[in-house]
Design a protein that fits this description.
DNA-binding, TF_MADSbox_sf (chains A, B)
Chain lengths: 123, 123
DNA sequence: CTGGCTATCCTTAGGCA
DNA sequence: ATGCCTAAGGATAGCCA
């Protein structure tokens, strides 16, 4: 954009990169805001800026209200994870592991005093 | 944009809203991708679509890899919260309270046997 | 709905003060 | 760094097939 096309790769010149960082950070959050308003949906953007010497990392979010950000993350964690269960392997395995853990816990509980019968069985 | 300006408010017509939803969702994630590549930063977008009858909520993220999304959320939780300590009131007060509590604890400890000198002073 | 098309508006890279 | 300016390229609302 601007005066001349930009190849889609990391901007080498640090000064240009920082300027573009600030400009596009603003543009991205603006788009998120418009998207949310126009379409009436929850949209959340989290930006973790470049590491700078003697500065904490620049953090920017949309919405700016961290309570809102957390709310959307929580919705994502529950509804999003649910939605993607069959697509995302790690979630799948996490869910399966939990199920197995719960089963084991239940067994342990109901088997008090029956330990002998479990000799040689890994529980 | 497009043919004519758009007022920044919820699009009433449901059909138009859905079309715009899909178009802008694509645009937003593209911007996030470009931003990440050009500037070499962690950027994460979470979109929770409109509720539809007989459909689970449409969830879209950038990056599409949920492991990456979680990594960025975790970075945000740790570094982000840290960064905003001085901006976010709840964090600010939490931090201040802790500091005061620590001071009080320290005082109490070092003043064993000197209680009389604190008579009338709230500690 | 799904996928182009395009007139218009928007974003922004590079300059400059 | 900090903030405007502007030309070019990008995004997209409304249409149409």
């Amino acid at each position: 954009m601007g005066r001349g096309k930009l190849t889609m790769e990391l901007i080498c010149n640090e000064r240009s990169r920082m300027i573009t960082y600030h400009k596009r950070k603003k543009g991205l959050t603006k788009k998120a805001r418009e998207f949310q308003i126009l379409c009436g949906v929850d949209a959340c953007v989290i930006i973790l800026g470049p590491k700078q010497n003697n500065h904490p990392v620049d953090v920017e979010t949309w919405p700016t209200d961290l309570v809102e950000v957390r709310r959307i993350i929580n919705r994502f964690r529950s509804e999003g994870a649910d939605r993607k269960k069959t697509q995302d392997l790690s979630y799948f395995f996490e869910a399966r592991k939990k199920k197995v853990d719960d089963e084991i816990a239940k067994l342990r509980k109901s088997l008090h005093g029956k330990q002998s019968s479990l000799r040689g069985i890994i529980v």
